[in-house]
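Run log, item B.
One chain of 230 residues. Sequence copied directly from the ordering sheet:
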Amino acid sequence: MKTAIITGGTGAIGKALTAEFSADYSVIFTYYRNSDAAAQLQKKYGAAPVRCDFDSPGALQRLEPYLEDCSLLINNAGISQIKLFTDTADEEWRRMTDINYTAPALLAREVSRGMIRRHEGCIINISSVWGVYGASCEVAYSAAKAGLIGFTKALAKELGPSGIRVNCIAPGVIESPMNAHLSPEEMRELIDATPLSRLGKPEDISHAARFFESNTFTTGQVLGVDGGFC
């Protein structure tokens, strides 16, 4: 069975991704703090948890045993922050870009070596609607997610001749603990700005990932799974 690495496996989207691919792949998923959720995922799907803090220089070393054989990488782990740009400290900016942009890029670099040798592989990066349109008071987050989109497009061109596909999903507002900081009024505004007039579900993202995983003639694309948000 082929190996898949899914980062941020214990989040709402990460759980849906693990459920989506665990029947077809030997899934390795990362988590940061939620060891109980990681144990539940392992028991339910047989997926293997690896604790990783992607803000730490040695994070990728924990995944080293799985990098060579990885056929599917889904860079899903991420953090967000609501803060004025002028109030964002250097350390906060660094942490936002390290986790949301640099770590996915370095992980893709490591798994791509084995993919190139095998002449096959699929990399899916989870960006955000804010990486496409930008968000006030989320400049650091928007910039990192926008960087992930540019990275996807460039890497797809570089790895395409080796039979490796690289694509990106830009979720809109998804039912997730990441949005727990939003007030009911803020949530209502986001729903009103979404033509489908509802929040997305984590499975909407995992189904989009399945499309990219299964469609062998699609690469370098950014798919907005956002209910028509604009």
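Observations after the first pass:
- The domain at 3-224 is CATH 3.40.50.720 (Rossmann fold).
- Helices lie at 12-21, 35-45, 64-67, 90-118, 129-133, 139-159, 184-192, 202-214.
Flagged for discussion on Thursday.
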